[in-house]
Specification:
Elements (H helix, E strand, L loop, with lengths): L8 H17 L14 E6 L19 H9 L4 E7 L20 E4 L2 E4 L25 E5 L22 H7 L4 E7 L1 H14 L3 E10 L6 H11 L3 E3 L7
Parallel strand pairs: 1-2, 1-6, 2-5, 6-7, 7-8
Antiparallel strand pairs: 3-4
Helix pairs in contact: 4-5
The structure holds pyrazine-2-carboxylic acid (VGL) and zinc ion.
Length: 242
């Protein structure tokens, strides 16, 4: 046929590459912003007294996340809170290891474990959510770290990397496909929770100004590297549409 347009494979591939490079360089258009929709859940990690100034494992400026999270929470239909919830004498506490000090590393049957000051002991004031955390529509609280011999930074899977908390199944049954993760601390419980959310197949975003870090021996930089490698997106609240 005389009017057939013949395009060879190489120029098609080259054209597609140019298009994707152009798309990557263009600033985010409103309709391209990640959406907060009915299938998006906000996961608020460990906004508890012990992780805020005055607490036993205070994260620098940890209290500053509260106002940011309260505002963000108004935009979500689905909100899950995680709560670090250790029995007294928990194996992650330095006080349970004679001769060891907080922030030293020990080997547990499941791998290396940072030893922490006693914190978030079940039923204590330190384990309570910050009183100014105002998320009246939150539906679920996932408590973690309650097994005496296993820590749990992640809201999904305990530190043995085998024991599920149930959060993955809960979100799946609720039809959630996207998770926005915020809270304390960026480099421990937020990072592990976000990484597990991504591994569970959720599109996962971390709102950077809604988190604060402990930053122990480069742990914050490593956390962002590890999260990014799994496809977790680092965003600001303003970059979320809806
Ligand atoms: C956390 C250390 C120990 C956290 C919890 O919430 O990031 N960090 N337990
Ligand atoms: Zn803990």
């Amino acid at each position: 046929m005389s009017n057939t347009i013949v395009v060879d494979r190489r120029s098609l591939i080259a054209g597609a590459t140019v298009l994707s490079v152009v798309a990557a360089l263009r600033p985010l258009q409103a309709q391209e912003k990640p959406m907060i929709d009915a299938r998006t859940a906000l996961i608020v990690v460990d906004v508890q007294n012990d992780f805020c100034p005055g607490g036993s494992l205070a994260v620098g400026k940890g209290d500053e996340v509260v106002a940011v999270i309260n505002a963000l929470g108004k935009r979500f239909a689905s909100i899950v809170l995680t709560q670090d919830w250790h029995p007294a004498g928990h194996s992650s506490f330095a006080s349970s290891h004679p001769g060891k000090k907080p922030f030293e590393l020990v080997q547990m049957p499941y791998g290396p474990q940072v030893l922490w000051p006693d914190h978030c002991i079940q039923g204590t004031r330190g384990a309570e959510f910050r009183a100014d955390l105002d998320l009246p529509t939150a539906q679920t609280i996932i408590r973690k770290g309650y097994r005496p011999q296993i820590d749990s930074y992640s809201g999904f899977t305990e530190a043995d990397r085998k024991t599920p908390t149930g959060l993955g199944g809960y979100l799946r049954e609720r039809g959630v496909t996207r998770a926005v993760v915020v809270g304390l601390a960026t480099d421990f419980c937020v990072s592990w929770t976000a990484q597990d959310a991504a591994k569970a197949g959720l599109e996962t975003l971390v709102v950077e100004e809604a988190c604060r870090a402990i930053d122990l021996n480069g742990s914050l930089a490593k956390a962002w590297t590890d999260m990014t490698a799994l496809g977790v997106k680092r965003v600001t609240a303003a970059e979320l549409a809806g």
